[in-house]
Prior knowledge:
- The protein has 318 residues and is an alpha/beta fold.
- It is built from 13 helices and eight strands.
- It has helices at 27-34, 49-60, 76-86, 94-98, 113-120, 139-146, 177-188, 200-210, 212-230, 234-254, 260-266, 273-283, 286-307; strands at residues 42-45, 69-72, 89-91, 103-106, 129-132, 151-155, 165-171, 191-196.
- An eight-stranded mixed β-sheet has the order 3-2-1-4-5-6-7-8, with helices on both faces.
- NADP nicotinamide-adenine-dinucleotide phosphate binds next to helix 2 and helix 5.
Amino acid sequence: MMRRAAWPMRRAAAPRAAAAPQGRTTRAASAAAAAASSFGRLAFVGGGKMSEAAASGVVSNKLVAPNDLIVSDPNPRRRQYMGEKLGVKVTGCNVEAADGASTIVFANKPQHCPSVFSQLRGRISQDSLVVSICAGVASSQFQEGLDHNRVVRTMPNTPAMVQGGMTVWYAMPGVSEGQLLATKQLLQSFGKEEQVTHEDYLDMATALSGSGPAYFFLLMECLVDAGVHMGFPRDVADRLVRQTALGTAVYAEQAGGTHLSILRNDITSPGGTTAAALYAADRGNFRTVVSDAVWSALERSKALNDSTDLKKNQRPAP
Ligand SMILES: NC(=O)c1ccc[n+]([C@@H]2O[C@H](COP(=O)([O-])OP(=O)(O)OC[C@H]3O[C@@H](n4cnc5c(N)ncnc54)[C@H](OP(=O)(O)O)[C@@H]3O)[C@@H](O)[C@H]2O)c1
C-alpha cells in the first residue's frame, strides 16, 4: 500500500479499477496484473514543474529508490535543484536518461517533442513504457516519433504539486497489464487517476480537470473581492475563502457519490440567504457562463492539438 499525503487527501488510494467512461479495467485484471507490475529504472525527460511534482510523488511513496530515478534537463540549475531536492540522478542528456529505463516519463514542453523524438528514436527498448504528460500531443505522435508501441498519454493538473492531482490517462493497445498497473501506481503517487479507453476524452479532461484549478482560483478570487466589497479586510476575506474552498472540497469528497445538488440543497434554507444568492447567480446565467467557459477550453484544446500535430507542421525542405 502506498503512503498517502496527510489530510485533506486521505482516502485510500489502493490501485483500483479505472472508472472509465467506456469500459473498465476489472479488479480481477488489476489483481492479476499486480504481480507483473514493477518499476525498475524510471526516467523523466524534462525536469520542470510537473516533472518535480511527479518525481516527488514517486520518491515520497517509495515506488523506486532515488538511485533508480533519473531526470534529464538542459538547464544546469534545474538539474542541481532536482538532484538536491529529491536525491535523484540528473543528466543533461536525454539519451543517457532513457538508456536502460523501464519507464520513461516525457515531461518536456510539447514544442520540444520533435527534437526529443529525434534524439530517442530507436534508443528505447520495445518492452519499456513511455508515459507522456505533454499536453496536446497525441499518443500516435509518440508512437510514430519514437517508433514505439507501448505509450500512455496523460493529462495531469497542477494540484499534483501537493499530491492532490487529478490525472486522466489513455493507454495504447500495446501497453501490457503490468504496465497499466504501474501507470496507476505512478499517477496515484501524486493524486488520483482515471483511465479512459478513448483518447478523445483527453481533450475533455484538458478542459475540465486540466484547466479546472484556474476556474476554482477565479471563483475564489471573485469571492474574496466580494468579501472586500462588503467590508472585510482583504487578508481576512482571503482566509475565509481559502478555508471554505478547502473544507467544501473535502466535504464533497467524503460525501462519496451524493449528488452535488443534494449537498447544495442541504445548505439552502427556504427563503434564506443562500437561496437569495443562488437566485442571483441563476439570473446572471452562472451555469451557462461556466459551461461556455469549459466548452471554449475544449475547442481551444482541439485547435492546439492540430497546431502540435508534428505531421501537419512538417514543412517541405526549401
Ligand atoms: N503545468 C501544468 O499544469 C501542466 C498540466 C498538464 C500537462 N502539462 C504538461 O507538462 C509538461 C511540462 O510542463 P511544465 O509546466 O512542467 O513545464 P516546465 O516547467 O517548463 O518544464 C519543462 C522542462 O523541460 C526542459 N526542456 C526543454 N527542452 C528540453 C529537451 N529537449 N529535453 C528535455 N527537457 C527539456 C525545460 O528546460 P528549459 O526551461 O531550460 O527550456 C524545462 O525545465 C508540458 O508538456 C505540459 O504541456 C503541464
